[in-house]
Write a structure and sequence with these properties.
single chain; 297 residues; alpha/beta; 10 strands
């Protein structure tokens, strides 16, 4: 069974902290991604927002674009307001023939604020869940109609972070609302990421593969570091370089005939973790696990 393996440009240049890899041209990122063996790359801040130029770059390096992160403010907006706000992003993804609309809610997010500890992340109040998920359902339906299904990204430092959040979110949203399954963020949130994959596999349409350096993770939790300081310390890395065993996860995907994208996404300081070197580590490890479980790329 064939599967698609891609990578995110965040290892080369960080959108939240432009000083990390800010001098790295997008062409270098694309060349490294192709050299490492990947067939796709997600949208990042270095890509021009002109779809013609973006398509030219993708074609030059023979890469596809699975999707791209959209940071919404839906908690304080109506569905209609958010729909109008996301149009430019949606149109770009449609024109580059992406597969999913990666949707995250950054309302009150602490992910880029080095002064705010992990414990201070925002959360939905009990009486907000129903109305919030109704808005998600409206947007999911509209995105499906546009041929660009939502892939909601649970993310550290945001209102949808924990296993409990994911459970509530899935239970309150409709069948057109899909989840972006991110191993690293779920482990960092102390969730049972294998259980989540087994339980919600039918609602998962995109997978981010990142790994965790356990000692840094434990230190981040113990000392209640900020998300920013945690990743600068190196809490995230590529699959095969941390403590997550991908074999049972890939087996679950294979047994459920998942054939969409797996995307390596591990935000690191490129001066500490050479992007090309780590891209190759991640590709080699995942390719071996995929092959072992019956997949081919």
């Amino acid at each position: 069974m064939k599967i698609k393996l891609g990578i995110a440009p965040i290892a080369w240049s960080n959108d939240d902290m432009p000083e990390l890899g800010g001098d790295t041209p997008i062409e270098k990122c694309l060349e490294d991604a192709k050299t490492s063996g990947f067939s796709g790359i997600e949208l990042g801040g270095k890509f021009p927002r002109n779809p013609g130029i973006t398509n030219f770059l993708l074609n030059k390096f023979n890469l596809k674009m699975p999707g791209g992160w959209y940071g919404s403010l839906l908690r304080a907006r109506t569905a209609k307001e958010e729909w109008l706000a996301l149009q430019d992003h949606l149109n770009l993804l449609k024109l580059v023939k992406a597969d999913v609309f990666i949707f995250a809610d950054v309302s009150g997010s602490i992910q880029g604020d080095g002064s705010k500890p992990l414990s201070s992340r925002p959360s939905l109040e009990k009486d907000e869940w129903k109305s919030y998920c109704q808005k998600i359902n409206e947007l999911s339906n509209m995105l499906i109609d546009e041929g660009m299904p939502m892939s909601y990204h649970e993310h550290m430092g945001t209102i949808i972070q924990s296993e409990e959040d994911v459970d509530k979110f899935i239970s309150c949203t409709n069948e057109n609302t899909f989840l972006l399954y991110d191993t690293g963020h779920l482990m960092f949130a102390k969730a049972d990421y294998e259980k989540i994959l087994k339980t919600y596999i039918s609602r998962i349409n995109h997978v981010h593969c990142k790994d965790i350096r356990k000692n840094i993770f434990l230190n981040s939790i113990k000392n209640d570091l900020s998300f920013r300081d945690s990743f600068l310390e190196g809490v995230f890395t590529v699959p095969g370089d941390g403590c997550i065993d991908y074999n049972p996860l890939i087996k679950i995907l294979y047994d459920n005939e998942y054939t969409n994208w797996l995307v390596i996404e591990a935000e690191q300081d490129p001066k500490k973790a050479n992007p090309l070197e780590y891209a190759k580590i991640g590709y080699k490890y995942l390719n071996s696990i995929l092959t072992k479980n019956g997949y081919y790329i």
